[in-house]
Amino acid sequence: MDFASDNTAGASQTILEAILAANKGSVPAYGADPYSAKASELLAQVFEREIACFLVATGTASNALALASLCPPWGGVFCHQEAHVMEDECGAPEMFTAGAKLIGIPGPAGKIAPQDLRAALAAFPAGVVKQVQPAALSLSQTTEAGTLYTYAEIEALTSIAHEAGLSVHMDGARFANALVALQCTPAEMSWKAGVDVLSFGATKNGTLACEAVIFFDKAKAANFPFQRKRSGHTFSKGRFLGAQMVAYLEHGHWLSLAKTANAHALRLAEGLAKVDGVRFAWPRQANEIFVILPGRIDARLREAGALYYDWSSKSFAPGVSPPGPDEVFVRLVTSFATESADVERFITVAQAASG
Amino acid sequence: MDFASDNTAGASQTILEAILAANKGSVPAYGADPYSAKASELLAQVFEREIACFLVATGTASNALALASLCPPWGGVFCHQEAHVMEDECGAPEMFTAGAKLIGIPGPAGKIAPQDLRAALAAFPAGVVKQVQPAALSLSQTTEAGTLYTYAEIEALTSIAHEAGLSVHMDGARFANALVALQCTPAEMSWKAGVDVLSFGATKNGTLACEAVIFFDKAKAANFPFQRKRSGHTFSKGRFLGAQMVAYLEHGHWLSLAKTANAHALRLAEGLAKVDGVRFAWPRQANEIFVILPGRIDARLREAGALYYDWSSKSFAPGVSPPGPDEVFVRLVTSFATESADVERFITVAQAASG
Amino acid sequence: MDFASDNTAGASQTILEAILAANKGSVPAYGADPYSAKASELLAQVFEREIACFLVATGTASNALALASLCPPWGGVFCHQEAHVMEDECGAPEMFTAGAKLIGIPGPAGKIAPQDLRAALAAFPAGVVKQVQPAALSLSQTTEAGTLYTYAEIEALTSIAHEAGLSVHMDGARFANALVALQCTPAEMSWKAGVDVLSFGATKNGTLACEAVIFFDKAKAANFPFQRKRSGHTFSKGRFLGAQMVAYLEHGHWLSLAKTANAHALRLAEGLAKVDGVRFAWPRQANEIFVILPGRIDARLREAGALYYDWSSKSFAPGVSPPGPDEVFVRLVTSFATESADVERFITVAQAASG
Amino acid sequence: MDFASDNTAGASQTILEAILAANKGSVPAYGADPYSAKASELLAQVFEREIACFLVATGTASNALALASLCPPWGGVFCHQEAHVMEDECGAPEMFTAGAKLIGIPGPAGKIAPQDLRAALAAFPAGVVKQVQPAALSLSQTTEAGTLYTYAEIEALTSIAHEAGLSVHMDGARFANALVALQCTPAEMSWKAGVDVLSFGATKNGTLACEAVIFFDKAKAANFPFQRKRSGHTFSKGRFLGAQMVAYLEHGHWLSLAKTANAHALRLAEGLAKVDGVRFAWPRQANEIFVILPGRIDARLREAGALYYDWSSKSFAPGVSPPGPDEVFVRLVTSFATESADVERFITVAQAASG
Question: Hey, is the C-beta of C90 within 8 angstroms of any chain A C-beta?
C-alpha cells in the first residue's frame, strides 16, 4: 500500500525492454543517435508542430534549464507560492538562472487566479531598476495540489503574461495525468493555450529517468545545449534517453499509463468519499488525492502498512476548514504501477477504522 | 570499426539486466532504496574504508559537484591545461563552484610534473586578496592523453597539494582502465595516494549512465546532498542508479570490462606499431591510443568506415615532433564492446595502406 | 521641500572636509592606510568590543556581502517580506550568495513577530534535501516601515534564530536614526541583542558613500576580503572611505546628524497629526513618516513643489484601513540636511489644503 | 619615493573641490542628477559620438560589469594571460558573468599578437557544445606590461574578433596615460579601432573613486542598469560620481594629469637607462617602468625609502634574458602626484649604488 509518490514505483516494463533493445552496436554519443532523433520526431507529432526538444533525466533539471532559458539573472519568475520550483528543488532555478528571484503568488487549490497574477505583475513594473525584472510565468499542470487548469484558465494566464512581456513555462511533471483527465490534446494543453516552454515529464509516469524540455519557439532554445552541457545534463549514451522517450510515446503507451494511474486515484477517492470523517482538501482531478483524515483512521492505515506523506498547505479553498487537532492532512498518489488490491485494501482499512 | 569513443558503445548486458531485475515493487525514492545502499556498501568494500558516496548519471556532474565541494567561488582549481574539466565541460566547474577559476598547468603526455605544480602554486600565495585562493588540485587518471600516473607520481603531487592546504580531486572517468593497467588496488590509486574526493567513472566502462562521487573524508561531503539536489542530479528513481553500480561492481564485473577494453587497445597498438609511418604521440597505457598517421593511411581507414576523432594537443613530449603537413593526429578508443574483428581489420587496412 | 529620501541630500560638510584633509602624500592602497585603520579602531570603540570590519561604498554591497558570508548557495535567508534586501536590491543577495533564497515573513508595520519567525522556520526543517537550508535571519533597523525593534524584540528574534542554528544579520541602513530614537548603545542594539553581522549604514546619514560591514564574530569574516574584492567593492584609494568613517564617528558627529534628521521628522509628524484627514500608517519612530493623505492635500503639496514618493505596503496594522479611492499613501523622509523652513512650509500647505 | 602604484596617490585637488561644490541642495538619487547628466554629455563629446555610459567606483567593477554585458555564463573571454581581469580581480569576471571562462593568450610585453589571437580562436570553434562559446576579446590599454597597442594593432585584433563574432572590451584603467603617449584621439583609441565597450579608468589618474563604462553600441547596454544595481555598484548619491567625472574631463584636466604622470616616468626611465646594470624588461611607453635591477641597487633604493613592487612575468620579449640570481625585477609607477624631487633622488641613489 505505497501511496507515497509516483516515483516510488519502478519503470514500465515496456520502456525497460526498449532500453535493452537499444543496446546494439555503436551509435554517436551526446544525443546524436537515431533513438534521440526518433524521440524528437515523435514529440513533434504528438504536439502537432515543429519544436526544439531536449532530453534530460530529472524533473528538476528540466524545470531549472527551462527557466534559465527564459529568465536572466536579474529577472523574476512568477509562480504559485507552493509550486515545486519554489519549494521542492533546493534552489535549482536560482542556481541555473544565476540568481533570479521566484515570486510566489497565493491561490486556493494550488492554482493562480488571473487577478492575482495581475496584482503580482503590477508590483513589478518593467524598468524599475531596484527590482528584478519580470521575465517568466511558470504554471504547474497538474498543480502541487493535484488540481488542473482548464484550457481557458491556462489561456487567460498566458495572455496576461504575454501582454506583460513575460514568457510562459509549464511544469508538466504530471502532464500526462492532466491530459487524460482533461481529455484535450497535448497541443491544446500547451502551445495552443500560450505555453512557450514545457517541461514534459515522463519519469513519474513510467520512464526510468527521462523528461523532455520542449520549446515551441525554437529561437528561445538557441543556448540550451550549452546550458545543458555545463550543468552536467547531457548524457554521453544519449540513446538510452531516446529509447525511453520513444517507447513512452509509441502506441499511446504514455496515455495508457496515465489513465491507469488516474483510474486508481478515482477509485481511491470514491472509496474514501464514503468513509465517515474523511474530508477532501480539494477535489481529486488526476492521480493525487489530498485528504484530511481523522487521526484514528490515519493511525490504523499506517499500522496496516500504508505509506503516504503528511502534507501542509496555505492553499485551502474558502469553505474548507484546515485540519483540526484530531485530524491529519495527507497526500495519496497513485501510479501506473499501483495495484488495485492495494487500493481496495486501503479503502477497507479506512472504512473499518471509521466504524 | 568505431574507435571514436568509449561512449559510443552501449551498456554491459549484465548491467541492463540488473536494471530490469530492480524493477520490482515500490521502494523509497531519491536514493533511500536498498539498491543504492548496497552500492554504497560495495564501494566501501572496494575501497577498503568508510566513505561517503553519491551516485549521479554523468561524468560532468560528478566532476563539477566534486570540485564544488572542495573549492569556494573565490578559489582556484589546479589541473592539467588539457584536462577534461578545463576543456570539455563547457564551464561546468565554473557553474557549480559559482565562478571559481581553473588554472591550467602544462606538461607532456597530459601529466602534471611535481615541479610544475610547485611553480603554479608559487604564483598563488595564500592570502593575496587580488588572486583566487588555491583550493584544490584535480588529477585525471587516466589523463586526457590516455596516460597514467603511477602510485608514486600521484603521491608526490598530492603531498605538494596537501602541504599547500589544497584538497585533491581525481577525475576517474576511466578509473577502471587505469586500475587494471597499473595492477594496483582501488585504495592505492586513490586515498592511499592522497586523493580526497574521487569521480569514480563507470559509464565509459559499461553502465548506462552511472558514476559515483566518493569522499574519503566524510566531513567534506556534508553539503553534497544539497548541491546535488539543486543541480538536478538527484534521481527520483534512485534504485536504477544503485542497481547499475551494484551490477558493475559485483563479481569484479567492472574489472573484466576494463581488461577487455585495455586488451583491445593493446592489440591495436601492437598492430599499428608495425605499420610504417605510424607514430605514437605517447605510449599507450590504458584504452586510448594517440597516433600520428600518414595522410594516406588515414584516408584509407576512413574510406573503409573507421570512425575516430582528429585530435590536437599542446602536450607532445620532448622528442616527438608534432604532426607534419601530410600527417593526421588522431585518437583511437576501445571499450568493453569493441569487437576483435574490428581491431584486426583496422590494422589490416592500415598495413595495406602503408605498403 | 524634498522629502523623497535621505539620499537626495548631499554629504555632511565636516565629512567632505575630512576627505580633503586626507588628500596628502601617498599611503598604501586597498585599505591598508592609516585612515582605514583609525576607522576600525573607532568602530571597535563605538561597539565596545573587538570586531572585524570592512568599509564599502553602498548599502546594497554591504547587505549582499554580509549575507553571502552567512548563507551558502543552497541556503535560505529569512527576512520581512518587504525588507530592502527582498524588494529593493534587484536580486543582489541572490547574486552574492550564488543563488540563495530569501524567504519573506509578513508582519504589521514592517516588523517580524516571534511567532511568525517560528512558523517560517518550522516550514524549513534542517536537513530536508529538497528545501533550501535555513541559514540566516536578516532584520532591518529601522524597518522599511520606518519603525523600530526594541532591544527586547531584537533579542527575542535572535534567540529563536540562534536556537535554530541561523546567524543573524542586521540591515542598519538607518542604524543611527534608530539608535538615537531608542536611546540605547550601539552594542545593545547589535551584538548584545544577538546580532552577528551588521550593515552599519552611514551614507543616508551624511557620508558621501561609505558603509561598514561589522562582524562581531571575527571568524565569520575570514572570507570576506575575497568576496569584497571579486565583487569590485575594494577601493584602491581606501583612505577616502576611511576618512569618511572617521569623520562620521568622531565627536559623535553621526549621532548629531541623526538627531537632526529625527527632530525634523518629529516636527513634521506633529504638524501633520493636526491636519484634518491625514492618517498615519504607522507611528513615526525615526526619520521616516508614512502617511495617508487626502487626495486634495497631496495635490496641493505637489503643486507647491513638495517631493516625496507614493508608497504601497502589505504591512498595515490591524485597525488601519488601507488608503481609500480619494487618498494617497506616501512616504516622507527627513535627513540631517533637511531645512526647518521646508518642514514648516509643508505643514502649512497641508493645513491650508485641508481647510 | 613611492613608486608602488598610481593608486597610492590621493586625488586631484581640483576634483575634490568639485565634490565639495556639488554638495548643495537636494538632487535626485541613483544617477538621475545633473552632475551625472553633465558627465555623460562630456564623455559623448570626448568620444565624438552617441554613447551609453555608466559611472562606477572601481576598475574591477567596471571591467566585470562590462564583460558581463558581453559574455554569457557559457561563454569565453579571450585576453592576455597576464591581463588584470585574468590575474588581479580575484575572479570578478567569473562572478559577474556567472561562471564564464577567461582564456589567456601568451604574448611578449603584455600584448596579444594577431596570429596568437587567431590560434586561440581556432581552438574554440563556435557551436562545439563541450566548450565554452567564444564571446569577447578583452584588450588592456595600457597593458599589464605598461606597453601600448597602436591604432593599427588594436584595429587588427578587433577585426579578427568581430569576424569571429566576438565583442571587444578595452580595459582602459590607464586609458589617459596611453592616450597622451600615443597622441591620438579617444575615439581613435576606442570605437574607431573597433572597441565595443570601454572601461574608462579615471581613479588611477586622479579621481577619488570614479570610472565610466562606455558602450559605443547602446543596444549592448540595455541590461547594464540591472547588473550594476544587483552588484551593489549604483551609488545613491550619484552626484558625487558625476561631479568627479565632470571635473576630470573639463578643461582637459584628465590629459594634464596623465601628461604629468607620463613625464615623470619618462624622466625616471631616462635616468635609469644611464645607470650601469639596469635593464629594461620592455620599453617604457606610459607611466609604468619595468626594470631589472642589480641586487645591490635594489637594496640601496629600499634602504633609501623607495617603495615599489617586485614583479614577475611570462612576457619577456625574445632577446631579454630573465632576471638572474643577483637581479631583482620590479615595477615603478608614476602618477600625477609624483614629485620631481623623488624622481631625481631615485635616479641619484641608483646611480650611486651602481658606482
Answer: yes
